[in-house]
Write a structure and sequence with these properties.
The two termini are 31 Å apart. The protein contains 15 helices and no strands. With 306 residues, the chain is mainly α.
Length: 306
């Protein structure tokens, strides 16, 4: 059985730049460094509320007031990432780094923009540059690990995730859960099943996350432990009862265990959710699987009766 290992990319805590920076004289006609700071604050407030278009407008106004304000370019870069405008984000972070080559947040944000634009090698370079300037930044290690996975450099990613865990605050359980889940996935891609299971288990101990249960179920299945896989998929569905992929995976495991009624029910549920979500390719594939399972059951019943 081929499982879809779902990755949830977490940006972790991205600190917006609101520091006492010395600002060069404004170059925009009628501009004001103080007004540039005011617009920056308004942009940060909008960003924190999730109002990214308004945040981008305020950062643009800040830049209009002072075209040499590196922080405004960096923060607009991050905002453009959330708006999925990656080309614009890269231009802004390039400008921020031209104005301030030691701006660690700009390196972080440009790395994220490269990552989201499917340029993992460039992302690795940015996160590495950030670490030269700020060697204990767990965000750089974590996000470099994500980029390393995209480059199929799984061992390097595992090392980075380990560094991220060492540098992250032990009080930040949310960050640790994300790192353990992603390190577990890298271990799984290397078929290091015991290590993967250990990482997913650690994540579950910190927080009973449906992704950790799902991925641990996949690891158990790859090991041939269908009973443990079934238990984990069921736990994942207790937490997230609308997940089509988990229903599909549990249905296939139930089929392998000979639990045909349960397998059919799960596959029907998976097909329903895939259809409702507009994932028509997955919907059709699930229907095809369902037909095969139903045919196998009918054939088995016929032979048993005969």
């Amino acid at each position: 059985m081929k499982h879809l290992f779902r990755r949830f990319v977490a940006l972790l805590t991205l600190w917006l730049v609101l520091m006492g920076l010395s600002i060069a004289p404004a170059t925009a006609e009628g501009g004001s460094p103080n007004r540039a700071k005011d617009f920056l604050r308004l942009g940060i407030e909008a960003f924190q509320k999730g109002d990214y278009p308004t945040a981008a407008e305020n950062f643009s106004q800040s830049i209009h007031q002072d075209t040499t304000f590196a922080a405004a370019y960096s923060d607009r870069c991050l905002t453009y990432i959330h708006l999925e405008q990656y080309a614009e984000a890269l231009v802004d972070c390039d400008q921020a780094l031209q104005l301030n080559p030691t701006d660690t947040e700009a390196y972080l944000n440009r790395g994220l923009a490269h990552y989201r634009a499917n340029q993992p090698a460039e992302a690795v370079a940015d996160f590495s540059q950030l670490l030269q300037l700020k060697p204990h930044d767990y965000r750089a290690y974590y996000n470099r690990g994500l980029a390393q996975v995209e480059l199929a450099a799984y061992r390097e990613a595992i090392v980075d995730y380990g560094q991220a865990l060492r540098q992250a605050s032990p009080l930040d359980r949310a960050a640790q859960v994300e790192i353990y889940i992603d390190r577990g996935l890298a271990q799984l891609l290397l078929e290091n099943h015991p290590q993967a299971i250990a990482d997913f288990t650690q994540a579950i101990q910190f927080n009973p996350d449906s992704r950790a249960y799902y991925n641990r179920g996949c690891a158990h299945h790859q090991q041939g432990n269908n009973v443990a896989a079934l238990s984990d998929f069921s736990q994942a569905l207790e937490i997230n009862p609308n997940d089509a992929q988990t229903y599909l995976s549990r249905g296939l495991v139930r089929h392998e265990l000979g639990e045909e009624q349960g397998a059919i029910a799960d596959l029907q549920q998976a097909a329903t959710y895939f259809g409702n979500q507009g994932q028509m390719a997955a919907y059709q594939k699930t229907l095809n699987l369902l037909q095969k399972v139903q045919f196998t059951k009918v054939q088995f019943t016929s032979e048993a009766i005969g």
